[in-house]
Specification:
Number of strands: 5
Largest sheet: 3 strands, mixed
CATH topology: CBS-domain
Distance between the termini: 28 Å
Low-confidence stretches: none
Shape: elongated
CATH superfamily: CBS-domain
Order of helices and strands: HEHEEHHEEH
Strand content: 15-25%
Strand order of the largest sheet: 1-2-3
CATH architecture: Roll
CATH class: Alpha Beta
Mean pLDDT: 94
């Protein structure tokens, strides 16, 4: 299955923040939106990604005062991307190798979605279930 198919099913909504917003505001967004990461944009350009893990790390290092820091201080600037025409298997490998759980999807330079490890696992489960149904139908028709 391709990333484009996942985005068709789940939608292309991406929650974003500006790099000058506070870590506290980012934590609030993650909680309210019930997501694990936000993409950080400077205008329309992706400049980073901030995950729950990044917030926990900065608070562990700096204490509660870190909540007033700008998102740019603790976001991951080395963003790993997905492309719409990539397969679930390729992305699962990339995420496993790099120990990341979210990939912004870009087409050219344009942000067009985000996929999480949960989205990819759900997709794989759907493929396996469809294959099992097909095999059952084949066996019972035989």
């Amino acid at each position: 299955m391709l990333v484009t198919e996942i985005l068709k099913a789940k939608g292309d909504t991406v929650f974003t923040m500006a790099p000058d917003q506070t870590v506290a505001a980012a934590a609030g967004e993650l909680m309210q939106r019930r997501v694990g990461a936000v993409v950080v944009l400077d205008g329309e350009r992706v400049v980073g990604i901030l995950s729950e893990r990044d917030i926990v790390a900065v608070i562990a290092r700096e204490g509660a005062a870190a909540l007033e820091n700008a998102v740019s201080c603790c976001m991951n600037q080395e963003v790993v991307y997905a492309r719409p025409n990539e397969t679930v298997d390729v992305l699962m490998g990339r995420m496993t190798d790099r120990r990341i759980r979210h990939l912004p999807v870009v087409h050219g330079e344009k942000l067009c979605g985000i996929v999480s490890i949960g989205d990819l696992v759900k997709s794989k489960i759907g493929e396996v279930e469809a294959e099992a149904r097909g095999l059952k139908a084949y066996i019972s028709a035989g």
